[in-house]
Amino acid sequence: MSQASMIEAVGLSKSFGPVEAVRGVSFEVAAGELVGFLGPNGAGKSTTMKMLTGSLLPDAGRATVAGVPLDGRSLGARAAVGYLPEHTPLYREMRVTRYLDFVGQVHGLRRGERRDALERVVAAADLEGYTDRRIHTLSKGYRQRVGLAAALYVDPPVLVLDEPTSGLDPAEIVRIRDLVVTLAQEKTILLSTHVLPEVEEVCRRVLIIAGGRLVADGPLDQLAGSSSDLLLVTLRAGEDAARRALDGLEGCGAPRVVTRAGPAQGAGRVQLALEAEDRFAAAERVAAACADAGLPLVELRHDVPTLERVFLERTRAIAPGPDSAEVPA
Questions:
Q1: Domain count, the chain
Q2: pTM for this one?
Q3: CATH of the domain at 259
């Protein structure tokens, strides 16, 4: 583990009976990073995060947090990481202050330490004015804040957040996202979410897992830049005529149909996608080829690489199956 790393996963693997949920996952997260952790359902995200927080022990490999191995015996490592699971386990009949005080007791804090911690986490999670409310009376967004306050109670340097905005309305999503950004000024954060624009908004680096394996790791701009340029061409033509006109162009891949409208042969519209080595040069060749073939060109545009496109490219060929589906633990 490098000196600046706060999270290290080395060859993490976990199976549940015949199901391989995680297969040899390795990565590091440096101190102060806010990293997005993405993957389709059943990819192994939650199982990986549970191993990183000490909730599950790996069958193979190892995990280290803040320089301390997560081997099931180290309370120091568990105290170094705060975990907000997707479904926050709360005692909903409790008042917020009573529940958070209980969290402090579980961590072995003295009364004075719990009082100081309560003041700190209420401010950090923006719970002022709600501490005397029973948890079941709060909106889901504020229940998430209570879970976040519990994760922060021992002031861990690392936070692992699993779908913190799941099921929230747009206003609550923005508020929770702003809280995460604020916390990232002092914490190292691994953020799992299905909301890709949210990751684009706050994370500079992304990890993508599929089929239990890590399939991408890097800054957003590099991952997007590694994707081939793509041209989207809409023609008023039949599919076969459009393919013939655009097939074999220099610097372009084989055209593939994206959408079609109208008859398959004749005057319908068809949109094709072409991978290109140089999208600008390719656009000129496409326009010339359409003119030569006498096919009306309705639209020609560049498909600018996005996180959504990178995600789909990296995960499309790795569909979850019986040996990669995630199993709750």
A1: 2
A2: 0.77
A3: 3.30.70.250
